[in-house]
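ugh ok fine here u go
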Amino acid sequence: QVQLVESGGRLVQAGGSLRLSCAASGRTFSRYAMAWFRQAPGKEREFVAAISWGGGSTNYGDSVKGRFTISRDNAKNTVHLQMNSLKPEDTAVYYCAADTTMGQTRYSAPMSRYEYDDWGRGTQVTVSS
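structure:
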């Protein structure tokens, strides 16, 4: 099991930027695809971005393409989500997730939440208009 702790969420004005971080425990972090999801009140959990364990493959949700960037530092067991040009509709709790499936390819970056086994508790991002 991977322990995940998110940080960096706060109140920001529309048009601003935030960088979220996810710190992971475990020696095999570098072999896990990682992702960010978000959930707004009364809505389903939504895919935001994913990155393969090798870092060479990324996927993004349609609503964040061109504005958000996911990255990882395997030496530091961390994943980041750089969020630019924030909009009020980006307001949500943001969750970090790990796909701990063994033997996944270095280009696997799933977009379905059902592919992810371990989740953090989330960090609140609020974008004011």
